[in-house]
Design a protein that fits this description.
157 residues; alpha/beta; 20% strand
Length: 157
């Protein structure tokens, strides 16, 4: 099963970068593994759908602002929350992008094989390369959640 672990975010918008930071930890933990790609991206909608082409399963890590306490982890499916990042009429949400891709014949993970690990963010509007303390503390937990989804979690000592 070919799997993509993809961190999303903007590296200069404080907590919005949490997905990028989690996948760096995942990459360090798994090293090179057959049928597993760990990557970063900054796009949603159609461009995100294009990143998923050719994979059987995807784990996407991103920041979210749902009203939960900062640093909370929320596991979502593709249809669980709106995913459109822009108000542009030239872009679509992820479920629509996936449907368009499938209609075009693209090999994409089925909806039940796409998991979104969302980390509740506190500050996604300020420029900066540091996370808020609550979100920083969530990185090991989010990394472990991804490894667990992949069946690669480490044994506790």
């Amino acid at each position: 099963m070919r799997t993509l672990v993809l961190g999303l975010g903007n590296p200069i918008l404080r907590d919005d970068s949490v997905g990028l930071r989690v996948v760096r930890q995942v990459a360090a933990a798994v090293g090179a593994a057959a049928d597993l790609d760990v990557s970063e991206d900054y796009h949603g909608g159609l461009r995100l759908m294009e990143r998923l082409v050719g994979y059987d399963r995807a784990v996407i890590i991103d920041a979210i602002q749902s009203g939960a306490p900062p640093g909370s982890l929320i596991r979502l499916g593709v249809e669980d929350r709106p995913t459109q990042r822009s108000a542009s009429t030239h872009d679509v949400n992820l479920p629509t992008a996936l449907a368009l891709g499938r209609q075009a014949g693209a090999h994409l993970p089925p909806p039940d094989q796409i998991t979104i690990i969302a980390v509740e963010a506190q500050d996604v509007l300020s420029f900066g390369e540091t996370l808020t303390p609550e979100v920083e503390r969530a990185i090991p937990l989010a990394t472990q959640a991804v490894l667990q989804l992949l069946g690669l979690e480490k044994e506790s000592a």
